[in-house]
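Exam revision sheet. Question 4 asks you to relate a sequence to its structure. Input first:
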Amino acid sequence: MNRNKYEIIASILESAKTGIIKTKIMYNTFLSYEQMKDYLKYLQEHALLIFEAKTQSYKTTKKGLEFLKLSRELSQVMHFSNSNEFNN
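Answer key, structure tokens:
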């Protein structure tokens, strides 16, 4: 499974929309513990994900939800573009 950084980020943010613990993020996104730690740190530093101490879970921020929206839109454009690639 070859995924780029943006696909992994989108996967984490999608998983965390309603709040999720580290272990479930790791299993949902097929990341090693070390990879997951790096991504969580990066996402928090860029305000795409927050840690809620009360529930010991991570949750996608408003900025993270906007990233997901834009990511889906870009994916749709690229899919459309690729499907018409040889029709021109």
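Marking note for examiners. DSSP finds four helices and two strands in the chain.
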